[in-house]
Design a protein that fits this description.
five-stranded antiparallel β-sheet; 31% helix; 477 residues; Enolase-like, domain 1; FAD/NAD(P)-binding domain; FAD (chains A, B); homodimer; 3 domains; flavoprotein (chains A, B)
Chain lengths: 477, 477
């Protein structure tokens, strides 16, 4: 027997993106069902942002205190690894979603647990754990917020060694003795930083010539140097050829293209080599779409060619970050409500219904030491885009606030200036504890605040934010 | 015999403000003399911002590490007080201005050491330590950047006990056993925080009903609670009636208006009860101005009625903060250069020649624990101004980034919104380590970024900056 229900909006996937779409449409007066096969709250709450930052924060706080002569004398002990793991568990609510399910109910959203598949126009069929089926019909819209999942590259034997994905790396209950990390992107770098500080002997294998390939080059260089300083074996230009288990050991074969292949042995291997859309097996073919890859959406996150269908968050591949998923959820939610009520939907840049920041102002922080905080275009991306621009750089350690913050502070600030409009296209900060500096750049970039006005945005002395003044002075020459 | 020289511009006072005026006009192609009677670099470098933050940073870093379960286990020792004092000394270059004098020379500015007095139109007479006189004639402008000094209130006996002013409090070579602080403004609160953490038994006497009277009320309340938690005796509504010495002790008599006066004994007393302009004894009367009080200047920092004379920095009383003095220096310097070269000087708001931020966007950070970081109008000032506004408040501890940062994080974010223009009039953050969050608010306020656009300025997750999203959601309701 199939239960049949009708809602204004059916949201598939109850990660932070889906939760926010459902919340916005309900606040807008529509009814909504929210479907989830795993934990309500999704990747970020249980297997990404929250646990990874909880694993890193203690290390970061200790480094900050050790870096200040006078304070360093107080740091005579070691981090309590069990306490840090317990703290991580508390931030994931020990992987229970009771609190989030309660929030969903309180928000007036109907939670439907099970696996969802589209079944033709405006219909979603949910199969519960017990095999029961619920057929959800959507009057106005279906929002697919199924997110992304770790991609395991097609390396011989790699799947068979049962590698960690970011999920296992963030939720591990014990510190691995030797950890081999495949991939030097932000997940690989953060997990190498975290587990190394907690006692693992870590090797990072990055195929390219640099860590953090999408960031300004100075970022990857600084993080590589710091990881090496912390005892991590960072190998660049390292192509993984195969993997196998020998007893409890994992053996990874690596080639740097020149010499003979080398074997690296570990107790665990983490594959942090990119993500892919979770679009397989959700019935896309029943509505005339190809059943794989990222969803192709317009600026209001509406799937092109299917006006009642939205693809919001990681699933559209525009910007695979929790905060961008939530942002898209607000914009798409507003568009869904407006269209349902017959209101105008302004599709021009920066309107309340479009996700313009996805292309112009995506912020991200890599919580390594040094941290890497960036928004908008890097110099390389600006060059690719063909926009007229100039790159302005300033050593963050030359700012009084930085040297007060940590002895011998080293860091870099880079601004990419649109020379035609004299606004910022992008900003990157590399250095210890720069995470909270970033939002100033986000406001400047997303706000398209002219440089002439930024001279009036005076940084408080002596904070690290004074680097803004130095960047402007460097720009002026 | 008097040495006579002529410059395009004569700058009186080589604190950071005067240094910046001289630098800007020299970069603009003018010649400049810079006169200083004390240390080149001024108050901020030797007796204010730099040493006070150096005294506080170790305490702050230790508190941050102690506040993270897991990390706290590593903090088993105590701060090394001597190392902290030595670190403070290094940030003041042990009160030597060699480095700064070298910078001045390198910038092409002529440094003239001695006490300066105006001597009629466009003339400054400098008396050196050896009694020699130098007569400096200015072709275009004289900029008075003499700053401010600690005011000692007219309390019976107070001057006679030889109290600390902020200068002595920031440069002390030893930790006082018992320190009595008169004044609960930002200097009193910072010095109470610093010296208490370094071992002093501290009493704070504040005449008003709250610490940090100019900030949002929640700020003073939070700082008072924290100081008390750290063992500081904070007395509000405490009027100091008299002071006297008894042997090595200082005895301060205090009344709370109700009961009998009480005697408080200490080893040292710090008077942190406001500042006054350093305008006495600089010859203002020779150019037809009254010889005391803050200089009355226009938006380009030109003294009203005396077109060749500028009053820049603390001396004009507009915003007594190092970074605002430097800002004014940039704006006034640009105006001086423009006027000297016959260029147009646009006096409209936010032009390169006016200090609009002095009234619209003054940022300040109080480096207590919790820190208080604010820009623009408080709710109270907005009400006084008569501008249509609404106050939006959000508990900073509810943000994921804050609870990751410190266990049990407590804090508050307050935004004052102009309901007519839908831009921010002011923002205050109260909480541990909020200093670097401030510049995002400075850019938003000085940039007059509309709230509609701020929705597109996405905070990176999970940083404390996510509070921006919560403030916007609270505003929307």
């Amino acid at each position: 027997m199939t239960d049949e229900r009708t809602y204004d909006v059916v949201v598939v996937g109850a990660g932070s993106t889906g939760e926010n779409v459902a919340d916005i449409v309900v606040r807008g007066g529509l009814s909504a069902a929210l479907v989830e096969a795993e934990l309500v709250g999704g990747e970020c709450s249980y297997w990404a942002c929250m646990p990874s930052k909880a694993l890193l924060r203690g290390t970061e706080a200790i480094a900050a205190a050790r870096g200040v002569s006078g304070a360093s004398a107080a740091v005579t002990g070691e981090q309590d690894v069990q306490a840090t793991l317990a703290r991580r568990d508390s931030f994931t609510s020990s992987w229970s979603d009771d609190g989030q399910a309660q929030w969903v109910a309180g928000a007036g959203i109907d939670l439907v647990r099970g696996s969802a598949r589209l079944d033709g126009e405006r219909v979603v069929v949910v199969t519960g754990a017990d095999g029961t089926e619920t057929r959800l019909a959507a009057t106005h819209a279906v929002a697919l917020c199924t997110g992304s999942e770790a991609a395991v590259p097609p390396v011989e034997g790699l799947r068979d060694v049962d590698p960690w994905t970011p999920r296992e790396a963030t939720s591990a209950k014990e510190v691995p003795g030797r950890l081999v990390v495949i991939g030097g992107g932000y997940v690989g770098c953060e997990m190498a930083t975290a587990w190394s500080a907690l006692g693992s002997t870590v090797t990072v294998l990055e195929r390219g010539e640099r860590l953090l390939a999408n960031a300004e080059p100075v970022a990857g260089d600084a993080v590589a140097a710091a990881l090496r300083g912390a005892g991590v074996d960072v190998r660049l230009g390292a192509a993984v050829q195969s993997a196998r288990r020998e007893g409890t050991e994992v053996v990874v074969t690596v080639s740097d293209g020149d010499g003979p292949a080398e074997e690296i042995r570990g107790d665990q291997v983490l594959v942090a080599a990119g993500r892919r859309a979770r679009t397989h097996d959700i019935g896309l073919e029943t509505v005339g779409l190809e059943g794989r890859g990222y969803l192709d959406v317009d600026e209001s996150l509406q799937v092109r060619g299917v006006p009642w269908l939205y693809g919001v968050g990681d699933v559209n591949g525009r910007a695979l970050l929790t905060h961008m998923g939530k942002y898209q959820a607000r914009q798409a939610g507003a568009a869904i409500v407006a269209r349902a009520t017959g209101a105008d939907v302004d599709l021009s840049a920066w309107s309340p219904f479009v996700a313009t920041a996805d292309t112009e102002a995506v912020p991200s922080v890599v919580f390594t030491d040094p941290q890497v905080a960036s928004v908008g275009l890097t110099a390389a991306r600006a060059a690719e885009s063909g926009r007229p621009h100039r790159v302005v750089e300033y050593p963050l350690g030359n700012v009084a606030g930085s040297s007060l913050h940590r002895d011998g502070y080293e860091g870099t600030a880079i601004a990419v200036v649109d020379t035609e409009r004299e606004v910022l296209l992008g900003v990157t900060f590399v250095g210890p504890d720069v995470a909270e500096l970033l939002h100033s750049a986000v406001v400047a970039v997303a706000g398209e605040v002219p440089l002439a006005r930024l001279w009036h945005a005076v940084p408080a002395y002596p904070t690290m934010s004074e680097v803004w003044l130095r960047l402007l002075e460097t720009w002026r020459g």
